[in-house]
Amino acid sequence: MQIPTITIGCGLVLGVDAIPVQVEATTRHAGDGTPRLLGLVDACVREAYHRVLQAFFALDLPPPRGVTTVNFAPAALKKHGSGFDLPLALALAGAAGLFPPERAAGLFAFGEVSLRGEILPARGAVSVAVAALQHGARALVCGPADAAVCAVVDGLPLHGAPTLADAVFWLAGRRALPPVPPLTNRSAEPVPDLADLRGHRTPKKALTVAAAGGHNLLFVGPPGTGKSALLRRLPGILPPLAPAERLAVLQVHAAAGLSLPGPGRPLRAPHHTSSAASLLGGGADVRPGEVTLAHHGVLFLDELPEFRRDVLEALRQPLEDAIVTVGRAQRTITMPAQFLLTAAMNPCPCGYRGHRQRPCTCTPAAIARYRSRLSGPLLDRLDLQVEVPALSPAELRAPEDAAGSTTALRERVLAAHARQQHRQTRSGVPTPNARLADRALVAACAADEAAMHAVDEVLRLHHQSGRGRVRLLRLARTLADLDDRAAIGEVDVFEAAALRGFAAVANV
Q: pLDDT at position 32, please?
């Protein structure tokens, strides 16, 4: 009699994406009785065989008889993670004859199996669901918690099985698995209102420009002036996530093994002692780092010069390409990293250079060393570089400014964002202003001769490179969008130059 081979699809999570894996199981009646797990499996997957057998006994399911051989294909790729428990268990159940082999055709499974037979969540379920859909899977069976999260993947039939017995009897046609409703978003954490911060008209304008066009932002000022407080309020005025962006955020957090994020854009604020690997991602199984966890959100670096130089320089690729590439001996992993970089720093080591009342105690050499921690290429990628001065007692006692509240600024941001989305989508380049380049940037600016003369003057006075010219035009385009102008003008160019940190341009 021919012994059937049962094949169940699964996925190996590497970085953010999942690579389809086939779990094949068969039995034979001769041999030394030792099960064979083939296909470069690690200790976690080898232990899964014993967890699954114990689950069979706990649920009174007959295990396969004879010697079992399980192959994880492709064989040359090292398999890791507890998500292989469920496909391994279902493949063994099929080899034991608990359901017809044809019922396994096109089926993907993912989840950890406990000793009692419960199907538990596993890291990277959303990535596996995306891979299953792209691979043409008939359905995906997993635990109820993972099924609720994976419901954001449209077009893939999902089945949430509380226990291994439920999954096996469903495949045998003896039990129905009720549909699992999508997991509702947890309520958004309250974001403090910008109206709570008195004054700071220019820094608030910079926040608005950054949110509307996706521009990177640096605040420079003495301690206690509100730099961090301002930047932590930025997510409150950002446009909402589009459905595709929401799916990407969920996929990233699931691949990192984190809980479901709220409905807003993510805000990541790593400590300045963080290593390059923690920011970029890495590890033996290559998990996402902070730049990927901030995908479609905000990466906030407080005390920017205190970060190690190699860590800051490593940000240059994701800032330019919106991806991060992690090389390993077996393969190279690419992860998404389209984030808005915000940062805060003091003007000098003591922090009081340029303060109204407190004198600076730093020597010129100390200030030069402090500033040398930030390279020119990195600073050049920060579109907005704005001073946050210390406020006077009278300014701190001023009433709340309704025009500077989170609600008011968010309305301006949404209107400007809608304008650029309409313009760039119509022209075939649906990207934010901060990523426009070449012909798309020229077409979006629609600048007249006076505006281009202003650009030339700024570049000549401040010895800017071609990259500086591009960033100046992008900022000017966002400023024009905030004021509902179809073309940029002189005033937009000069204001963009001032927000870039070219203070003298205001007097040109």
A: 46
Among 378, 402, 426, identify where a domain stops.
402
Residue 469 counted as domain residue: no
Query: What is the structure's pLDDT at 392?
Result: 76
Task: Give Cβ neighbours of residue 435 (< 8 Å, ≥ 6 apart).
Answer: 214, 322
My answer on whether 215 and 343 are in the same domain is yes
Give rounded-to-5 percent helix, strand, coil for the chain: 45, 15, 40
Partners of 72 in beta bridges: 23
Range of the domain at 291: 194-402
- CA dihedral (59, 62, 66, 71) positive or negative: negative
Same-domain status, 127 and 201: no
Would residue 177 count as lying in a domain?
Answer: no
For the segment 139-176, what is each residue's pLDDT rounded down to a tens digit?
999 999 999 889 888 888 899 999 999 999 999 999 89
Half-sphere exposure of 466 (CA within 13 A, CB side): 2
Judgement on whether residues 268 and 162 belong to the same structural domain of the protein: no
How many other C-beta atoms are found inside a 10 Å radius of the C-beta of residue 56?
Answer: 22
Residue 408 · residue 496 · CB < 8 Å: no
Give the residues of the chain that fall short of pLDDT 50.
Answer: 1, 31-32, 503-508
Please say which residue of 402, 430, 448 terminates a domain.
Answer: 402
d(CA 367, CA 372): 9
Question: Around Cβ 167, how many Cβ atoms within 10 Å?
Answer: 29
For residue 69, the domain's CATH number is 3.30.230.10
Count: domains in the chain: 2
Predicted confidence at residue 185, as pLDDT, reads 56
CA 216 → CA 245, 252, 360, distances in Å? 19, 22, 28
Amino acid at 311: V
Residue 431: inside a domain: no
User: What is the pLDDT at residue 213?
Assistant: 94
H-run or E-run covering 491: helix 490-499
Residue given tokens 């034979």 in the structure block: 28
Say yes or no: 344 and 245 in one domain: yes
pLDDT of residue 187: 56
| Strands 158-160, 139-142: pairing kind | parallel
Look up residue 158 and give its DSSP letter.
Answer: E
List of E strands, 349-491: 384-387
Cα–Cα distance measured from residue 290 to residue 270, given in angstroms and rounded to the nearest whole number:
7
**How high is the pLDDT of residue 428?**
64
